[in-house]
Every structure is written in structure tokens, then in C-alpha cells.
Amino acid sequence: MQVRDKVVIVTGGASGIGRALVQRFHAEGAKGLIIADLNGEGAEQVAKSIGGIALQTDVTKEADVQKLVRAAEEKFGRIDLFCSNAGVGGADPDIDNPGSPTNAKWELAWGVNVMAHVYAARYALPGMIARKSGWFLNTVSAAGLLSQIGSAPYSTTKHAAIGFGEHLAIAAKENGIGVSLLCPQAVDTPMLGGAAGSQNVDGVLSPEQVASAVVEGLAAETFLILPHPQVTTYMQRKTGDYDRWIRGMVRLRRSVIDGSKGAR
């Protein structure tokens, strides 16, 4: 899947990975770029810098995602690539109790990290099916394949996003539609916030490095795009011996907790 001459939507496009994707897709020669973000002003700034279109969008609201898809199809007649990139994180208030985050935190994580992907498929798929072409790039996380110490809502919803992405890929393939899941570890974005944690063990990438991995992954039509290649090995260890992997994660959790205490 080449980005040149394609019509692309990027949610969460005002900053971080989303902004880097927009800028890289522009450099690759995308025909049209629609930048969606809850931060409407930030989306406008990014859009102006590359001659794109901005639309303030709350991806947890089905009507907003429907409006986004409709706006792109009315302007360009099609959507070639829908990058469902918006995401939210957050730490557990009590690191010893994964049930400690409030219901509101769980619901927000579910809305942004899972249902936004569902809404994107619900409204962008019909046009893609009619044309027998199109692609979804869903930004998930290595946490969806492995885990994220100290953030139960994040880990849980990212696992669910992997499940939905798999189902989407299986269902859409025969209609000529592809799916890629972007699953980095630590990336230098506002979500990371400079925090130390298990996601940092293999280094922190820049958003631009992640965008390069995306362009390469799309060109190769890869389902899992892993900017941190070590994740493949971790996945193999996890599926090869789940109990051993859990024990290893317990040790990693302890080292993260002890490290955070030492940094204070």
C-alpha cells in the first residue's frame, strides 16, 4: 500500500505520532489529508502546515466519526487510508490494585482505544467495500500484545483493540481491504510524558521514526508494524511459555517500582 496519491484520515493528528504521520504522508505525496483531533486548534495548525483539512473530532462519539468519514468522502469521493490513531493512557492510582482506576477512566480508555476503531470501520468500510480497495491503520501498542505495568485500563483496552483488528483483517480481506496494526513500545509523545516504565526498556523512539516504520510497513502490507523489533521475541516467549513470561513480568514490575522510588 503506497501513500502517494491517496486520501488519508489521521485521528489524533494534532500531536505525537499522529502529527508525524500527517507530515510523512504529505512528504510521500498523499493526495488529501484530513487531520482529526479533539484539539481542534492543534489540528488546524497541522493542517495549515501541509495544506490539509482539519476537523475537530471526539472519537468516542459515534456521530463525530460518522461526520469525519462523510466529510472526507464528500470532499474527495473516497477514503484510501483511515489511520485510527487517537489513544489515551493513564496510570493505576494504586499500582497494587488493577481495579483501582475509576469507572470514568475505564470508560474513556474503552471509548478511545477500542470503540474509535469500531466506529471507523462501521462508517469507512461501506465505501471501501464498494470500491474493493482501502486500508485501515490502527495505532494500538505493544501493550496490546504484551502488557503495560501499572496501567490496567490501557493494557486491557489495547488487547481488545488487537482482537478487533484481527477480526477486521479477516473480514475485510476478501473485499480487497487491508489492515495494519501499529504496535510500538515507548515513543516520545505527550502520552509518555517523560515517565520511566516497562515500555521504555528497549529505548524511546521519536514519532518520526515511528512514521518511517509505518510507511515501510504499509508498503510491505504488514499486519503487525513493530517499530521496536524486540517485541516479536517477547511475543514468542509469551506464547511459548505463558507461566514463565508472567514470572518475568513480575520481576520487571518490581524493577520498575524500585526504579521509580529511587528516582524520587
Walk across the major sheet and give the strand order.
3-2-1-4-5-6-7
Mean pLDDT across every amino acid position: 94
Low-confidence stretches: none
Helix and strand element order: EHEHEHEHEHEHEHH
Descriptive account of the structure:
The protein has 8 helices and 7 strands. The mean pLDDT is 94. It is 51% helix and 12% strand. A 7-stranded parallel beta sheet has the order 3-2-1-4-5-6-7, sandwiched between helices.
Outline the secondary-structure elements.
Layout: E1 7-11, H1 16-27, E2 32-37, H2 40-50, E3 53-56, H3 62-76, E4 81-84, H4 103-131, E5 134-139, H5 152-172, E6 177-182, H6 207-220, E7 224-225, H7 230-240, H8 242-262
Parallel strand pairs: 1-2, 1-4, 2-3, 4-5, 5-6, 6-7
At a glance:
This protein is 51% helix and 12% strand. The chain has 264 residues and is an alpha/beta fold. A seven-stranded parallel β-sheet has the order 3-2-1-4-5-6-7, with helices on both faces.
